[in-house]
From TrEMBL:
Originating species: Candidatus Symbiobacter mobilis CR
Taxonomic lineage of the native organism: Bacteria, Pseudomonadati, Pseudomonadota, Betaproteobacteria, Burkholderiales
Keywords of the record: Membrane, Transmembrane, Transmembrane helix
Protein name: Transposase
Domain Transposase DDE as annotated: residue spans: 2-84
Pfam annotation, one family: DDE_Tnp_1_2
Length: 90
C-alpha cells in the first residue's frame, strides 16, 4: 500500500485482522528498487484484482440494496475469478 494508508488507525485494523501490513512511504519503494536486484512491488496484485472485479457489472454498479446481498455477490465474483485463474485451461 502507499502513503495514503500510512495511519495508526489503518495499522491497528490490519493488526486486528492478523494481516501483515506492507505500507511504504513515498519514495521508499523507488529506493528499494534501486538497492535490491529483482525487487517487485506488491501493489499491482491488488490493482489487478480490482480491475478483474470491475468487469462484473453487478459489482461495479451495485444493484443490490442489502449489504448481505452485495457481500454475497462479492464472494461469488471472487470465486469466479479464482476459478478462471486456476481451474480453467488457458
Amino acid at each position: 500500500m502507499d502513503k495514503g494508508y500510512d495511519y495508526d488507525e489503518v495499522r491497528e485494523i490490519v493488526k486486528e485482522f492478523g494481516f501483515t501490513a506492507h505500507i511504504r512511504s513515498r519514495g521508499e519503494e523507488a529506493k528499494s528498487i534501486k538497492q535490491e536486484a529483482g525487487f517487485k512491488a506488491r501493489r499491482w496484485v491488488v490493482e489487478r484484482t480490482h480491475s478483474w472485479m470491475n468487469r462484473f457489472r453487478r459489482i461495479l454498479v451495485r444493484w443490490e440494496k442489502l449489504p448481505e446481498t452485495y457481500i454475497a455477490m462479492l464472494h461469488i465474483t471472487c470465486a469466479l475469478i479464482t476459478l478462471r485463474a486456476y481451474c480453467l485451461p488457458k
